[in-house]
# Entry
Amino acid sequence: MTDAGGGTGVPVRRSRLAEYAEMAGQPPKESHPLEVSGSAPALAGPGPVETGRGAEPSDAEVASRRREFTALLAAFRDTAVLVPLRSGGWLTADFGGVRWILAFSDTSALARYASARDEAHQEWTYRTVLGARLLDVAVPAAGVPCGVALDAADGVEHAVLFPPVAGVVPDAFAVDHVRRGGAPR
# Structure
């Protein structure tokens, strides 16, 4: 695909991701763009978490959100996602003492991220990786507390974080895992 390059008449190679960015200007509407076949839910977050100083959630609400996240985690583990490559490794971001591997459900989600960083014009190289492989292999290989951020540019309604905690990543690499002797990792 080429672009005339500012009216000079000379064709300039244009990243295919730039075209996706033009098409994907808005985040997804009602549901997440990646749906898992069968009875598993779409890969969409359990909804925004209220951070105000309101009443504590009921036990039933906590249990419901845990069930939703467990189903979401299972769907993620069985789904292939796109992971951009940068400087010979995965595209990551460090925040709050945790390294986050940035993964995207499809090229439109990756394009929205590239646009948000004002980098849609660049060529983006990515690899398709199974969610389970990210959590079970890439996270332990990071050497630091590490989790996965899915569709980071899509806001709290659609982006999902899979933090480095027991039940999400291997226990030996979970930040809440207790080592022998009672000291947390």
